[in-house]
Amino acid sequence: MKLLSIFVTILLLSCGQENKRVEKEQKAKDSVSTHLIESSENLNEDEWEAPAEVQEKSPLEISILNLYKSMENKDEQEFLRQFPKDFEQFQGYFGWDAPKDAPHELYEHSVHYIEYLFYLLRTNKYPAYEKNIISICEHGQWEADAVNYFQHHVINHIKENDKYNLINELRDDKAKSVLFFLFDGPHPKFDADFASHLSASKKQILENLFESVFLDDTEDQDPFPDEEAHSAYTLSDYLENEHFFIRDIDINNDGILDKIVSTERYQGDELLLFINDGEAYRFALKTINFSEDGGNQIVDVLAEQGGFFIKTAFPDGGFLEAYHHIAYTDEHWILTHTVYKTQSSNQEDAFIYVCNVEQNLELADADVLDKLKWMPNEDVRNRVCTKEML
After folding, report:
1. Under the phi-then-psi rule, with left for phi > 0, alpha for psi from -120 to 50, and beta for the rest, what region is 266?
2. What digits encode the pLDDT tens for the residues 128-142?
3. Domain boundaries, the chain
4. Which residues share a beta bridge with 114?
5. Which residue from 19, 39, 201, 369 lies 20 to 30 Å from 381 (Cα-Cα)?
6. Mind listing the pLDDT tens digit for each residue in 212-232?
7. CA distances (Å), origin 330, targets 77, 190, 272
8. How far is Cα 160 from Cα 260, in angstroms, rounded to an integer?
9. Region of residue 41 (phi > 0: left; psi between -120 and 50: alpha; otherwise: beta)
10. What strands lie across the sheet with 332-343, from one edge to the other?
11. Phi, psi for residue 292 in degrees, rounded to 5
12. Residues 306/332, Cβ–Cβ less than 8 Å
């Protein structure tokens, strides 16, 4: 009996200790659960949804360095995301730092970045990014080199791809700012064909700009001879004019040196031919030297067998040259062909594309510039152009 009583006592003590152990474990579990709930309340929504290792990769910071890397890697979408979206940023990457009188970081390679941008737009894979080129134009002002080159490419993109809706869909105040930039320059020229594709309101804005801004009567007098006032050009008009240079070249294959007059760089695109008839230099033709408000500028006019050629280049940044070859045939000056040269990239293994483009255009044709065939697009150069080592 005493043994039974001792056994029952031990059993009751054991059960009590087990109950206390279970109670302690439950309290511990409750404490852990409470801690987890409190911790979860302090987490951000994204952190709560998934662990760090399965979170989506954060987009890269918008910077010159990341634009450069995307260009080097030919990462098309990242390049378009990194490319400037407004004029201030564009000028700060590719333009000239006037206060410091020094180039901005990507100034020297601006041609390649701008060409790659418009190459991507021509693929028609990224139509949404076309509006970005218009946003860069807004509040823009003409500058030489990169800004000029971009301006030229925007106009060409709109005209060649019939993208006038990019302007026609803008509010009038934005359209005025964009059109001002597109036609701003040392010598603005009204483009009647461009204007004809604009809506009535946008066309009126462009016409008003040329009436009140680009053709301001308070501007300094035009230093160039006026065509209507000089129906018969004379060489003496240009001999002491600092805006022109003169070259002695036989232009009609008679063995006698004649005169070619050209505007200097950034001074327009005039080219005049004067034939030496033994007594005086007789005016023969007024044409163009292939300088562009948005691109290449005149470098020189040089003699070659059977005629001469005009060299132009993109000034001060990148590598883009054009050699326009003119021959005298059947009393006409014919642009026979143009040789374009451009650097493939700014990488160590870069090379020069040499593209020989047949033209067969008369220099006397008033629309010769509109009919000019340009350098082949980047996507076909490997097939139609040759290569030279740097």
Report:
1. left
2. 999 999 999 999 999
3. 2-54, 64-212, 236-389
4. none
5. 369
6. 888 643 344 344 444 443 345
7. 53, 34, 19
8. 33
9. alpha
10. 297-304, 307-313, 320-329, 332-343, 351-362, 386-389
11. -125, 140
12. no
